[in-house]
Write a structure and sequence with these properties.
globular, two-stranded antiparallel ribbon, alpha+beta, 8 strands
Length: 133
């Protein structure tokens, strides 16, 4: 089974469960297993200086989700308060069906709810609880 098939199956199984999907297609009402990352405020951001902003790295098994807001990110420019995400497998940034758009490795202009929806999707696709150091 390919990752794309797994992502489609996760979407199908999710839609058939008692959980719901909001109009933007983001998952809601999904538990994150034993993770302590239940809300956006639980994410541990680290300040960055070049470019100036913040970054959080969240591991999901073999994948790592980078969440940034800085002077160069999509949504963070000019003091913006929106976030950009990217997915890594090892040291390589990758596309991940259900997380990023085809042909793109990042997704920007995400508010806090969309970041949490992305974390929940990563949990479903990877089968791993989110972990931060």
């Amino acid at each position: 089974m390919t990752l794309l098939t797994e992502a489609v199956d996760a979407n199908r199984n999710f839609n058939q469960s008692s959980n719901t999907v909001d109009t933007s297609g983001a998952f809601i009402n999904v538990e994150l297993g034993g993770s302590e990352m239940k809300t956006f405020k639980d994410i541990k951001f680290t300040p960055t200086t070049m470019p100036k902003g913040v970054q959080a790295l969240i591991a999901f098994g073999e994948y790592e989700l980078s969440v940034i807001c800085n002077d160069s990110s999509y949504g963070g420019k000019n003091g913006g308060t929106l976030y950009e995400i990217g997915v890594f497998k090892g040291n390589t940034m990758v596309e991940l069906p259900g997380i990023t758009e085809p042909g793109d490795q990042v997704k920007g202009w995400l508010n806090e709810d969309k970041v949490m929806a992305t974390i929940k999707k990563m949990h479903l696709i990877s089968g791993a609880d989110p972990e931060q150091a």
